Amino acid sequence: MTEKGQEVALQVEKPWERREDLLFLNPAGEVPVLVDDDQSVIVGDAILEYLEETVPTPALIPGPPADRAEVRRLVDWFAHRFDQEVTVNLVGEKLIKRLSGQGYPAAVNIRAGLANIHYHLDYIGYLAERRRWLAGEHFSLADVVAATQLSAVDYIDSVPWADHPEAKDWYARIKSRPSFRPLLADQLPGIAPPPHYADLDF
What is the CATH code of the structural domain delimited by 65-185? Predict the structure, then answer.
């Protein structure tokens, strides 16, 4: 929303508590949920398309149809495949279980996440070497979604940046964007990120 020049009032939500107010907005009891100025309620991945349609400039799904399809392909890759293979296994086990009191981390899932992240960082590096941004010549939602997944994993110091310099260089460019810097200042109470997390020159 900051990339689109839109102000937003963020609200902390703990979906595992299944608050009635959240369930009223989204019966699935999941975040994210966007309540627009006209009280329209948009949930999940649809928020990305909604913002692109209601605030078309700057375009974050830019270019001709084939280029836009590539953006959407990579958004789906990072929002779903990366999330399930990496973020759920690492952030879900190491952080969410702790915050929600859902038990102890499952070592087998953590090992899977630590193995899978190399595959995904290799792919990011492959794309970043061949394109200006992940989906092509223009910054897009593909970069946004990939960076937010990595930011969550980086918060728990589980990204092996030293093994993936091309991915690290791409992420350093993301961290320098004005829209991304405020995210790096956010911290969970009692759970501090590693020192490099907010460092633009990590």
Answer: 1.20.1050.10
pLDDT digits (tens, 9 = 90+) for 96-154: 999 999 999 999 999 999 999 999 999 999 999 999 999 999 999 999 999 999 999 99
Q: What was the pLDDT predicted at 144? A: 97
Other C-beta atoms lying within 10 Å of the C-beta of residue 40: 10
Architecture of domain 1-58: 3-Layer(aba) Sandwich (3.40)
Is the pTM here over 0.90, yes or no? Answer: yes
Please provide the DSSP assignment of 49-106 as one string.
Answer: HHHHHHS-SS-SS-SSHHHHHHHHHHHHIIIIIIIIIIIIIIIIIIIIHHHHT-----
Q: Is there a common fold for 1-58 and 65-185?
A: no
Burial class, 67, CB count within 10 angstroms (exposed 0-12 / middle 13-18 / buried 19+): middle
Integer Cα distance of 81 and 116 in angstroms: 10
Residues sharing a CB contact under 8 Å with residue 179, sequence separation 6 or more, in sequence order: 2, 3
Q: What is the pLDDT of residue 190?
A: 87
Whole-number Cα distances in Å, 100 to 18, 48, 159: 11, 27, 23
**41-43 vs 33-35, strand pairing mode:** antiparallel
| CB-count burial class (<10 Å; 0-12, 13-18, 19+) for 202 | middle
